[in-house]
Amino acid sequence: xxxxxxxxxxxxxxxxxxxxxxxxxxxxxxxxxxxxxxxxxxxxxxxxxxxxxxxxxxxxxxxxxxxxxxxxxxxxxxxxxxxxxxxxxxxxxxxxxxxxxxxxxxxxxxxxxxxxxxxxxxxxxxxxxxxxxxxxxxxxxxxxxxxxxxxxxxxxxxxxxxxxxxxxxxxxxxxxxxxxxxxxxxxxxxxxxxxxxxxxxxxxxxxxxxxxxxxxxxxxxxxxxxxxxxxxxxxxxxxxxxxxxxxxxxxxxxxxxxxxxxxxxxxxxxxxxxxxxxxxxxxxxxxxxxxxxxxxxxxxxxxxxxxxxxxxxxxxxxxxxxxxxxxxxxxxxxxxxxxxxxxxxxxxxxxxxxxxxxxxxxxxxxxxxxxxxxxxxxxxxxxxxxxxxxxxxxxxxxxxxxxxxxxxxxxxxxxxxxxxxxxxxxxxxxxxxxxxxxxxxxxxxxxxxxx
Amino acid sequence: xxxxxxxxxxxxxxxxxxxxxxxxxxxxxxxxxxxxxxxxxxxxxxxxxxxxxxxxxxxxxxxxxxxxxxxxxxxxxxxxxxxxxxxxxxxxxxxxxxxxxxxxxxxxxxxxxxxxxxxxxxxxxxxxxxxxxxxxxxxxxxxxxxxxxxxxxxxxxxxxxxxxxxxxxxxxxxxxxxxxxxxxxxxxxxxxx
Lengths: 451, 193
Description:
The structure holds two protein chains of two kinds.
Chain A lengths: L2 H14 L59 H4 L2 H6 L1 H5 L5 H11 L3 H14 L12 H14 L11 H14 L4 H4 L2 E4 L10 E4 H18 L18 H4 L15 H17 L11 E4 L2 E4 H23 L8 H24 L17 E10 L4 E6 L6 E14 H8 L11 E4 L1 H13 L4
Parallel strand pairs in A: 5-7
Antiparallel strand pairs in A: 1-2, 3-4, 5-6, 7-8
Chain B lengths: L7 H13 L2 H23 L2 H17 L11 H26 L6 H23 L2 H12 L4 H8 L3 H16 L18
Helix pairs in contact in B: 2-3, 2-4, 2-5, 3-4, 4-5, 6-7, 6-8, 7-8
């Protein structure tokens, strides 16, 4: 028996009862998938038909109505009261009733006007259910939308230019995380080795990476007077320095879960909000020194470095779940490269102190602020440019007159190197001049990945 | 959605920050609601570029006229959703009208039906997204997972009575998408359109 025959059977019944109810308008609801006048009573019994979905059957939600599995059970209607039948209307409209109950409901609808009205209404609502479209929000849309807004009405409290990369990178990562299910949150991620030749790559998960970002961003948040990462959801070891994490094997007793996303996102928003509202937004703003990764950086550089770290970790996450992930906007990438270039003299000095850099004979003593031996760093691609790196002292000025070497790298390659994601020996570098100096600079860049 | 039950205080503070001209607030607003806004626009228009355009308009309106939002009238997300649907429907109608004027197929009545259907569909989407999580979870199990109400009750760890109640209530909420007939001007949507 198909739906049409079944319906005709009801029609006969109705006629037999003196045509008590006109159920024909059930199919005429606006937006109703079966809502064409011709669908009834000529008997297509589409998904919108009042008696078209008796009980459970096969087929997908949008498919044709299933064949009725069983004839109505005559005994059932008498067993159920009005109140119970009424409570079944939602389940019935969704075809989520076992067959005997569905039959009982349908029997009831022929005699109960109030329930029939509601049944029609609810069946119409079912036609509006649709699976959520999985729309990937184009990450570039954010900048277009926000820039368009700010052109129409210039902000009284702008986001400082030096904080925009952090604002953009955290938003990009958050958009990537948006549709992650548990499988993605717990996908394994390998972070780069903390020390060359040292321990193996650190294993964590996507949620673990976000927990690390939460903790590291927290150093900036605390410097801004914000509470820093906290809250009941935080995994105990999330804020622990990486060096301690391995001390007793796994000290993370509760591995981070997706619940880490909200506090991380909220903290990032709070950082942007706070650096914007301190009024420190001009070109000279954000100079307050803050402790950061064993160094002292200006606030603006610390926030910029967090943007860089966010991108690097987002790449790790995207790799782990096999998603594409683009490079930052060119002007943001340029700021990140510039920061790295400015950090290089300090990193070179640290390597010399540790005895790992080229020995001293070629060093020239340089007065603070004076010109010193320099390497010309040429970065190709969007966001690139040229920087003169002072080789002998963080206090020296890079000087074209004292250029001893010239290195050429692609921008993304250079950033991966400085993020510890690319070994210096694997970097494609165009070299001329003092090769020892170039090697030192590449190793110093790689050492920044441990910041 | 995490923000379904966000307290009204967040909405109020956001409005004040937008009114103060805080660019960071605009960013947060976008981060919170862009996928909702763009999703609804796309549901109405079925076109990526047009949905992006509506997204731009919605946030521009919120940024330029934050005072048009009245927290007393309901949550900010509802205001933005209404705005998105309204602007998307306007765009759909304008595009369709222009096509008719160029001698395209169809009639004005058909266009009006299409517009109305798209508007109801978008309203339904928003209702589903904004309804309390227990109701939505029950609907998802019963409709998309094809679980009957007893299985739904077991999956959710609630009584069968409660599962029936949630399914019925969820559909009752969804059925309100058919109300307020023609897509009119949403409350609080002042002037600019």
